[in-house]
Amino acid sequence: MSARRFAAHFGGAPTVVEDAPGRVNLIGEHTDYNGGFVLPVAITRRTRVALAVRDDERVRLVSADETMAAGGPALEYTLGAEQRTERWIDYVQGCTAALAADGHTLRGFDALVTSRVPIGSGLSSSAALEVAMLRALRSAFGLALDDVALARVAHRAEHDFVGARVGIMDQMAASLGDEAAALFLDTRSGAWERVPLSAGVALAVIDSGIAHRHASGGYNARRAECERAAALLGVASLRDFDAAALPPGGELPPPLDRRVRHVVTENARVLEAVAALRAEDERRLGAILTAGHASLRDDFEVSTPEVDRLVTLAAADPDVLGARLTGGGFGGAVVLLARAGTAAEAARRVAAAYARVVRRGGAVLIPDDTGARTS
Fold first, then answer.
1. Domain range holding 295?
2. Is residue 280 a part of any domain in this protein?
3. Residue 61 pLDDT > 80, yes or no?
4. Average pLDDT over the chain, rounded to whole?
5. Rounded to two decimals, what is the model's pTM?
6. In the 8-state DSSP scheme, what is residue 198?
């Protein structure tokens, strides 16, 4: 990030520069807010924050991506007077509000944000922003926050302040994630470990061209359905529901029966995927991803016709072992598991076929020109 860019807006140099990655989720969708298991991987696309401390309580923010080209003014607010605006500044306001609630003392600051994590593609651009900002604030103000505590503050910023009722997976992935290993996380206990990716496979991510937003629409509705189902089943969360006791069809009204089936089977798929990674069983892992998409499409109903078409085209490619929607759904991106050394070419073939059929989207996000892992 150029100091010249920062100076163009704020008249000085940044004293702190920090960043955080986006993530692609291998398996474990809509399980985190149900107390379940997830398996995300950090990606090379990152969000960076350059920051300088001020002598007052004002916060001034500029997104290089949103306002730099247009020469727009900085967005501003006062510490202690955070108010939702329905703009990207809310993710930062949520962070400072959460820190203040925990007793951390801040001063005002100027910050320039630059991101290569595309918005609305299911790669967790919001968590990358939150974690990058909190890392910058931790460095600037000497905050006593370890990486797990930082992720929890970031989650509260998005869940409580922004109003997106997400689980904690994205923030934990941005704070603890590794590009060479999947983060196996038990969202109920908080236990986590890194499980290395097999040398025999590589990941690719293709954007469907259908943007989604967590803070509105179907995502929050799906969470509410899960909470209603748990209440009807008499469990604290769907993580506590025994897979052997899946309702045969009459114990829960539709669509709650299908929502439960997805969450229970998805938790099982995460455990199976971890076992497949440890055994370096690439075919088994690919089949697990494909089965996960079918569940998201049919039981959780968060896919779209365009995303389904993209998955179908990916599955037909000879170098692709499995594919699925990644992220919360209602648009976003698809993750492909490909044989090592073939991910870039396979992704280009699939994206080109998708663009011909659907006539929108099809951008290959991973591998990208930052040197994403392809083998």
1. 198-366
2. yes
3. yes
4. 91
5. 0.90
6. P
The candidate with the shortest Cα–Cα distance to 165, out of 206, 221, 106, is 221
37-53/16-27 β-pairing: antiparallel
**Cα distance between the two ends of the chain:** 28
248-284 b/e with 16+ CB inside 10 Å = b? eeeebeeebbbbbbbbbbbbebbbbbbebbeeebbeb
> What is the pLDDT, as a whole number, of residue 285?
98
**CA–CA distance from 260 to each of 47, 171, 267, 337, 370 (Å)?**
35, 24, 11, 26, 39
Q: Which of 32, 35, 41 is nearest to 168 (CA)?
A: 32
| DSSP 8-state class, residue 64 | I
Task: With respect to residue 1, please indicate whether it lies within any of the assigned structural domains.
Answer: no
Mean pLDDT is lowest, of 1-5, 268-272, 302-306, 348-352, for: 1-5
Q: Domain containing 218 — which CATH number? A: 3.30.70.890
Residues designated catalytic:
170
- Given 3-state DSSP classes, what are the helix, strand and coil percentages for the chain, each rounded to the nearest 5? 45, 25, 35
Phi-psi region of 96 (alpha: psi -120 to 50; beta: other; left: phi over 0): alpha
Reference 102, options 75, 137, 128; nearest CA is 137
**According to DSSP H, which parts of the chain are helical?**
3-10, 89-101, 125-141, 147-156, 169-176, 218-233, 256-279, 282-298, 305-315, 343-358
